[in-house]
Design a protein that fits this description.
heterodimer; A: 262 residues; mainly alpha; B: 339 residues; alpha/beta; Rossmann fold; Alpha-Beta Plaits; 12 helices; 13 strands; binds adenosine-5'-triphosphate; binds magnesium ion
């Protein structure tokens, strides 16, 4: 564990050296994610300006949901972006072979190989949204609330990573896993808003099947003091269960790896 | 205990045929249409510590597949493999500490990093002792002439520079077994020489066991005492290089240049000869000099083809192996292996 932490640090350091060399890339990458987020928010804002609330949720409350999922997503974006391109950039090219001939965990190697700085933009936007919402909604930043938020965001991030890992495994068979990953990932759009605004079915899917709800709606509802019962505390458990499952499936996929010709 | 041991190893690739897009992906996942390909079949051989073995065969013979199984990247479909007493696939991480690999067509270094940074990362991955690392780096920088390249990112290196960098990265953790899959592909003679010298030096000083795949027979002649030739996934020859030369050194060839376009179908060939190649006005005939002689062959053919010029050649290793590849002597070789 300590060895891997140290190693991650070395990978990160090299990554930042590259980023320093291409400073413009860094600015454009991180900046463009901020712009993308801004466009999305503008849409929410222009809708909410017309109506006082959405199914009992005010604009600021929705911002909290939106901010929390943005933070969770940024964790996935920063630390696990390589899962997206695993098939295209590592399996198809045979580049994955070199991970397998080194004495470290190949999944760790894959993730550590590219810290994605674009995610920093998401992270900053997420922090800003959560702060703005909490000020407007008078959420007190007590140590308990801070700890709750931290655990919720990390759990949310893990849920994002687990789902992307689960779908990236398909690359072992079909090489290009992006369509599969994207199909599941896009459903997180639902979880940018309170799940109560949708039909029951969508709520159930976002809670028990593709549980992005725990990256946004449930922690937000808890912080706002809405009664959601035990669901307020299930996030970490679901995250651990899902990442364990995803890792098992990854190992199973790995045993089917057949490399590339040439 | 041999360093590398394969017994009755086979590898069958099962790949999925798939259409593009999400539809194709979903269909491929749930109703896969498999295509099977036997790449290696009943392969057995072993290599002892400190040997440098040339592993050769035509394109698609199964060389890279074998190396991928030996390094633990792929698991065999059948048979068993031991490297330093371990199963390289099951005990992949433990195996990885002891081996080094070069895949000639791709790099194991980080594209955007300067060579020094890449090597630093590798030293960290293998947990090299800092003092030892510095010493080896200095040594390799000198023997592979890398001093000026240390601050250059891999992406801006030439092919030859890249391969030298690659070798440094491969030998940095002082592996006991090294697999080199076409390490000299596309390089000029000077770089080839330097690389061969480096490999020879590592082998002699550290007793590194080396398995080398190449299409360049100079590599074999200069580095390997032993060659294993495979064809269609099985061994067709395993023995000293000298035996191949002796065994097939009895072949000679005569090349004719003719005045008129050839009519190959109408040629009557004397006993013990075969057509090696032919063009519109060119003919090369190979013969076994223990069966017939150059003058006999020439006498028999000259009246038939109206030759304006001819020359006699002794075979070099390349043409011998070409014959073996072409299957001309596969049967003879198999017998030899059996005896
Ligand atoms: N990942 C793969 N999936 C499916 N078939 C493969 C794969 N890798 C190799 N093959 C097939 O297996 C056979 C052996 O390939 P291999 O790469 O081992 O040959 P090779 O001897 O290294 O050839 P070359 O000299 O061209 O490098 C070939 O027919 C090849 O098409
Ligand atoms: Mg090959």
């Amino acid at each position: 564990m300590r060895r891997y932490a140290r190693l991650y640090w070395h990978f990160l350091l090299q990554r930042f050296k590259i980023l320093l060399e291409y400073r413009m890339n860094f600015v454009i990458g991180a900046g463009s994610t901020v712009l993308l987020q801004a466009a999305g928010l503008l849409a929410v804002w222009s809708v909410m300006r017309q109506i006082p609330d959405l199914n009992g949720w005010t604009f600021d409350e929705i911002l909290l949901v939106y901010g929390l999922i943005t933070l969770s997503k940024s964790i996935n974006h920063m630390f696990a972006d390589n899962l997206w391109i695993f098939g295209r950039a590592y399996i198809r090219t045979g580049g994955f072979d070199r991970f397998l001939v080194r004495p470290i965990n190949p999944l760790f190697h894959l993730l550590a190989d590219r810290f994605c700085h674009d995610g920093i933009g998401n992270f900053v936007v997420g922090i800003a949204l959560v702060l703005k919402a909490s000020l407007a909604l008078h959420i007190a930043w007590t140590p308990i609330n801070i700890a709750y938020c931290l655990v919720a965001v990390v759990s949310g991030g893990v849920i994002f990573i687990a789902l992307n890992l689960l779908t990236a495994v398909s690359a072992f068979w079909i090489i290009d896993s992006i369509p599969v990953t994207s199909a599941i990932f896009q459903t997180h759009e639902f979880a940018k808003y309170p799940l109560t605004i949708y039909s029951r079915g969508i709520g159930i899917v976002m809670t028990w099947l593709i549980p992005y709800g725990f990256a946004s709606f449930y922690p937000a509802a808890h912080l706002l003091g809405r009664p959601i019962g035990v669901l307020a505390w299930l996030g970490p458990l679901i995250a651990v269960a899902l990442i364990t499952l995803a890792y098992r499936i990854w190992l199973w996929g790995l045993s089917h790896y057949s490399s590339t010709g040439s | 205990m041999p360093t590398i041991e394969l017994s009755h190893v086979s590898k069958v690739y099962r790949t999925i045929k798939k259409d593009s897009g999400l539809r194709g992906a979903v269909k491929a996942l749930f109703r896969p249409h498999y295509v099977e390909k036997v790449a290696v079949h009943d392969l057995s051989f072993h290599v002892d510590a400190g040997e440098v073995v040339g592993y050769i065969g035509v394109n698609g013979a199964g060389k890279s597949t074998t190396i991928k199984m030996l390094t633990g990247i792929l698991h065999p479909s059948g048979g068993s493999i031991r490297v330093l007493g371990r199963d390289p696939h099951r005990e992949r991480v433990a195996n990885a500490r002891e081996i080094g690999v070069v895949f000639g067509q791709r790099t194991q270094l980080w594209w955007d990093l300067a060579l020094r940074e890449s090597l630093n990362l590798i030293a960290n991955i293998y947990e090299l002792e800092p003092a030892r690392y510095r010493q080896l780096l200095a040594e390799f920088a000198q023997t592979l002439e890398l001093e000026e390249l240390l601050s250059v990112p891999i992406r801006s290196m030439s092919l030859g520079q890249k391969m030298r960098a690659e070798l440094a990265a491969t030998f940095l953790h002082q592996p006991r077994v090294v697999y080199l899959d076409e390490p000299t592909i596309g390089l000029d003679v000077m770089v080839k020489e330097r690389i061969r010298a480096f490999i020879r030096d590592q082998n002699q000083r550290n007793g590194t066991t080396v398995m080398l795949t190449t299409h360049d027979l100079d590599d074999i002649e200069q580095l390997c005492q032993r060659v294993i030739i495979i064809d269609a996934g099985s061994v067709v020859y395993d023995g000293p290089l000298s035996t191949i030369k002796q065994r097939f050194g009895t072949f000679r060839s005569i090349a004719f240049e003719t005045a008129h376009p050839l009519e190959i179908e109408h040629l009557i060939l004397p006993l013990g000869t075969a057509i090696a190649s032919h063009g519109e006005r060119a003919l090369e005939v190979r013969f076994d000099r223990t069966v017939t002689s150059a003058s006999q062959v020439a006498t028999a053919l000259m009246p038939q083809i109206e030759a304006i010029d001819f020359s006699l050649a002794e075979p070099d290793l390349e043409s011998i192996i070409k014959q073996i590849y072409a299957g001309t002597h596969t049967a003879a070789l198999r017998e030899e292996v059996l005896v």
